[in-house]
Amino acid sequence: MSDDLLNAQNDLARALVEARLLLPSGVPGLFGRGTVLEDVIERIDALVVRTAEGDGARAERWRFPPILPRALLEKSEYLSAMPQLAGSVHAFDGTVQDHQKLLARVHGGEDYGDLQKQTDVALVPAACYPVYPIVASDGPLREGGRLVDVFSYCFRHEPSPDPARLQSFRMHEYVRIAPDADDARAFRDGWIDRGLLLLRGLGLAAERAPANDPFFGRAGKLLAVNQRDQELKFELVCPITSAEKPTALASANYHQDHFGSLFGIKNADGTTAHTACVGFGVERVAIALFKTHGIDVAAWPVDVRARLWAP
Ligand code: AMP
Ligand code: ZN
Fold it and tell me: Best substitution site from 22, 154, 232, 289 to test ligand 1's pocket, by max atoms within 8 Å of Cβ?
């Protein structure tokens, strides 16, 4: 990372912490949120929800905890695609003697990972993952497909000095389970336009950019090239700490029949469903606003304030 970028990230983090917008924990990428930041985030989220009303078909609103069955993470192939970002939950499950060992290590500041056992749960990497097995278990996809609204804390192991790159953040997603490719792609494309309007309406210099997920390793390079070639992922990006490398505030993804096949989501005629999702990182949108319009919300442009604080 260049010194300029690191300085910009440190400066922004310091300003956000000094203004009590971010409440630091001492661990990179792990913050609490102060009153004003949380208020702005809630208002951004309300705007996302208002924008989603344009979908006509009312979305089913499902809420999941920020952990999911480990088997689901495995089945979804997340561990082949992005093992470096995944987090799993471990817990102590030993004898009294093991406990003594554990405490000795804790007090000695030593690693005690081997004294904990992998549990059946892992941390949610993206808000949409818990949706697919439920839709599959409901049986053949109803005519016209389904639309699900999910909002969840997500975990990604990517500790960074960048205050816009968090280890734990919230993602509001709309997940389209469509009967076919055209429908899923059209949903995704419609959200690119609406998402851009939403972000630009807040005075953000948002642009649409073809993107790929940070797939792991050599095989991952191929997956990334394929994702770009097939135009499966777009991000809505905006400069936060770098003009050359703007930050993704939202992504709009077409998964083809990836989840449909893995989880067995079928249409009534036996063909496999296609899926798409759009996800807004609400902390990131808020941080982009503070970076663009300044730390003092009272001094933000009148139209931006009006849009966020609309009755
Ligand atoms: P993705 O699934 O990677 O396309 O992420 C969807 C959205 O979640 C991104 O566009 C960001 O707004 C947000 N996001 C992803 N990773 C992070 C992170 N480490 N910190 C904060 N927000 C994130
Ligand atoms: Zn998703």
Answer: 154
- Ordered DSSP codes for 77-135: THHHH-TTT--EEEEE---HHHHHHHHHHHHHT---GGGEEEEEEEE-SSTTTTHHHHH
Alpha carbon 68 to its chain centroid, in Å, reads 15
How does residue 57 score in pLDDT terms, banded at 50, 70 and 90? low
Q: What is the pLDDT of residues 183-212, one digit of tens each?
A: 999 999 999 999 999 999 999 999 999 999
- Does 56 have pLDDT greater than 90? no
Q: Summarize pLDDT for 278-309 with one digit per residue, the tens.
A: 999 999 999 999 999 999 999 999 999 999 99
- How confident is the model at residue 58, as a pLDDT? 80
Domains (range + CATH), the chain: 3-69+76-86+125-308 (3.30.930.10), 88-123 (no CATH)
Instruction: State in Å: Cα 3 to ligand 1 middle.
Output: 24
Burial code of 225-241, b = ≥16 C-beta within 10 A, e = fewer? eebeeeebbbbbbbbbb
- Nearest of 249, 254, 196 to residue 228 by alpha carbon: 254
Q: pTM for the full model?
A: 0.97
- How far apart CA 261 and CA 263 sit, in angstroms, is 6
